[in-house]
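Hi R.,

Here's the chain you asked about this morning:
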Amino acid sequence: MAQPEDPKLFEQCRVCIICTDSLPLESAQQLAAVIEEYGGEPLIHHSTPTKEETTESTHIVSGTINFETYDLACKALIPVVKPSWVHTSLQKRKIANPRQHSPDPRLFLNDVVVTCGDIPEGDKDAIIGGVLAKGGLYSSRMSAMVTHLVDLTVESDKARLVRAKNLRAKIILPHWFDDCLKLGQRIDERPYILPDPEILRAGPDDPIRGNVNKSLAGASTPEPAALPTPSDDGRMSVFDGKTIMLSPDLGIGSRLLDSIETVIKQGGASVTGNVNEADWVICRFREGFVYRTASRLNKEVGNLAWLYSLMTFNEYTRPLSRLLHYPLSRTPLPGFEGLKISLSNYVGEARIYLENLIAAAGAECTKTLKQENTHLVTAHGTSEKCTAAREWGLQVVNHLWLEDSYAAWKLQPVSNPRYNHFPSRTNLGDIAGQKMLDRDVLEMNFFSSEDTKPSSPQPAKAEKNKNATTMQPPAEKSRKADKKAATTMDGTTESPQANGKGRKAAEKKIQTPIRSRLIPDDKENETPSSTSSRKSKEAAIAHLHELAPDIALYEKERKRVGGVIHGGRRKSDEDRVRENPKKRRSVDAEGESDTEQANEAKRAKKSRPAISMHLLITGYQPWVGKGKEKKEDADKRHLRDLGIMVIQDARRCTHMAAPSILRTTKFVNALAYAPFIVSTDFITECLKQDELLNPAEFPLVDKAAETKFGFSMVKAIGNAKDNKNKLLKGFRIYCVDDIRGGFDAFKSIVEANGGECLLFRGRLALTNPSRREESDDDDSDMEDNESGRHDVFLLSSAESKHARLWPRFRQVAGDIKRTPRIVRVDWLLDMAMSQELKGVDEYELTEEMIDQDEE
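And the predicted structure, written out as tokens:
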């Protein structure tokens, strides 16, 4: 606790405390007393604070982000923190870092305090960095505050302390953090808890349990079927004092409309038909005058499902916090039209939610999986549907791909590892429905316009009200104008053409170049076509003046080495934009508060040189073997200090180091990208001499291996540069399931060279490439790879269990009018290493070779 000599800890803080179910009035009063005792100015609110009270606060204490002015607080850079922020500040005797106490669910580790046991140093640094980035805290010591001890065994000193003192900390495998960070979501810890973690003892075919997903209650459908029954314990406080507008586009009958209005009025709210007077607007679609006007005026805009949810639970939630609580779009999500998506392993509310989300995105959700499907969305990777989808070459992803695409209103690439990661003992249906919408994305796609002050649609009331805004065109015309308003790639702003008889039909669009943004208003040369147009231009110019410091800073950052996406601004920069001290009176104290955590979590690092090479390493003996992890981590940091970035992805490598020519997956994949290949002596000497040596002095020379494998490495590198990863373009190569080396290894080699590799288990038919796929290839590729286009290949061995699949492969290949070629893996490896196409005759397998193959 804070000491008596710190009576003014919160002296510069004006703290607004919001009472919620998770922060009742009694707890709020205790917090307020503590804050006031230590010099702060507390203010308790039983509901959402006003805009003025929000912007005048330095901190907002709330157990949730579900209050109406949350977005305003974020834009004003006012931190929203949980009550634990007050307690931590008192314990540390300085203002704690607000990020570590944020109630934002996107910081999904915000209630985690982690310490590490006997795990490798590299894993420890990665876990600490990930926890801090996602809102958690790190403790170097085992204390009562720790919630998770990361360890590999219960026999470590810290684990024994936890068990001896019966502390609340969970002893957990590092795999849990790895899976959470890969998914970007917090998953259930139970399968990872020591001493008997389920992920280590369960078999691959054991069923995976699912938990009840409480976050989807009332949020699984955008169009609920029936009005919920109001509670009998009095009126609903969630509506108290609100003015609500029910948009005409809801399309509901008069009887249901009367019932909804009755419930709203019983809850203490009023109903209006004027969008300007409304606090909340209920719409069905993301279009029309009412929707755009309410959105531009920063009203709360939700759909009927959101309204019903408030009635059911009598607790306020932001409509943006659930994907299906916000109005739908009539037009499909770009890239989703024509997609056929099937679901697997999702049950209950999670399945209903995803079916509705697929429909809302404009795709088709199919009950059964067929070869005509394009995607399979699955909660885990062990089901018959998953096996069939992979054999058919369909995209197998988790629901995060669907949610991220919908929230960003942009088709996300399925190659993102986040979308094809399936933790071994977790049903991802447990975390469905946690994605939130981004208002900036919605504004850019659905209600972007220069005119930010649209008016009431009632002309009679507008004339009587002196403060009413001017009349706007009808909704249809306004929608057309919105589509014409856009911001071009070079930064110019275009305004929509004016409609109406009083405006010239041929009026040109107004463009404001970047450089003209900084000139004064009184020197702006404009010829207004109407009063409303002039006001729009003046508002736009005023907004551009506000952006001038950011534009100037961007230009400076763009000229810096690394550009605007690398590095950051330094405090010593002369033109660094500084925060407004009036709004953030406690910013200095907050910045200092993070020093303690930073010192515990990170070492002070000297300035590193720029990266001069991306090095892929394979077969480096000093790093091979048990117990070498710490040496490997230390050597990698040493190499980075010399300007060498050690990477694992062959696509990014500029150099590759190996002790000799190897047939490892790394080596073979990297050859397709034509890196400069050096001996591992280069690594040893750089570490020994503590300087970056010339890699040209350490070329990899291995004539014996070149003779053995029948190729020249110098020639292979030259071929790779010419091939540009298209050596196998047009080839469709199948692979038996349990081939030595593993399907994933051969799949990566084929794809690195531009081909397509699929799994074949003999139960399913092959698919024929579409004409579109064939027409997309260059003519030169069609000539070079002609044989690959008319043949289908099966990588196999001569073992009898593999030979049983050969007749089926020949049959299904004939069904699609392709020539079946069953070959040894040497055919693929020899082509990948020499970067030359080779005939299959000497590699082809026949029944006479069964059990006689060298493999």
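The radius of gyration is 32 Å.

Let me know if you need anything else.
M.
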